[in-house]
């Protein structure tokens, strides 16, 4: 049943409502609900099937959520030593600090880049966009530049394409392009947490640089400075929503 039908006849599922408010993807919002971080009309709700109706007050971490009428889609060139989370107890630099004053909306990251990685990442308040781009079933291509301290044997890259199991987890890339003895471009379609770093670390190769240059059909402009951002074009948004690689 479509979300519109659910909304009209039975109320809207809580995680769907939260995603429409820009709190995160539906999967992320389900996690927030399960963790007890969401209240409806003052009561903590942990039930995934809970429905929200007009007039209900929904709060996430003590802040009321409202559906955003305007949808925002940002391409951000994340510097190293910047977090993609919405807050950090240690007070480290946050990606949202680079553009929050320009967009008065609750924005969330689409996918992730770890603390020491840099490059292209999207921010939005559209949960449907996040699902279309970041869900593993979407198979959205992500391209990275990887530089190491020692030469990279092509044999391990071939293993990476075939699929390589580390501690029970299978890691796999779609393809690679060798640029030099210590520099390679890797293309992934899923991207498990710290997948590239774990693979190279297993093979005793220290990653000096991990920089994402493409997500789907959107390529990072080399002229965009570290910490820079721009709005995605409608053509880019449509392409990503359709799953163009």
Could you walk me through the main structural features you see in this protein, from its secondary elements to its overall organization?
There is one protein chain. The chain is an alpha+beta fold. The protein is globular, with a radius of gyration of 19 Å. The chain folds into three domains: about 5-65, RNA-binding S4 domain (Structural Genomics Hypothetical 15.5 Kd Protein In mrcA-pckA Intergenic Region, Chain A, Roll), CATH 3.10.290.10; about 75-135 and about 220-240, 2-Layer Sandwich (Alpha-Beta Plaits), CATH 3.30.70.580; about 140-215, Alpha-L RNA-binding motif (Alpha-Beta Plaits). Strands 7, 8, 9, 10, 13, 14, 15, 16 and 17 form a nine-stranded mixed β-sheet that branches. It has a four-stranded antiparallel β-sheet with strand order 3-2-5-6, with no helix packed on it. It is built from seven helices and 17 strands.
Strand and helix map with partners:
Blueprint: H1 3-10, E1 12-13, H2 14-20, H3 26-34, E2 38-40, E3 43-44, E4 51-52, E5 58-60, E6 63-64, E7 73-78, E8 108-110, E9 118-124, H4 127-134, E10 142-148, H5 154-162, E11 164-166, E12 169-171, E13 175-180, E14 183-188, H6 195-202, E15 207-215, E16 218-219, E17 229-231, H7 234-242
Parallel strand pairs: 9-15
Antiparallel strand pairs: 1-4, 2-3, 2-5, 5-6, 7-9, 7-17, 8-9, 10-14, 10-15, 11-12, 13-14, 15-16
Helix pairs in contact: 2-3
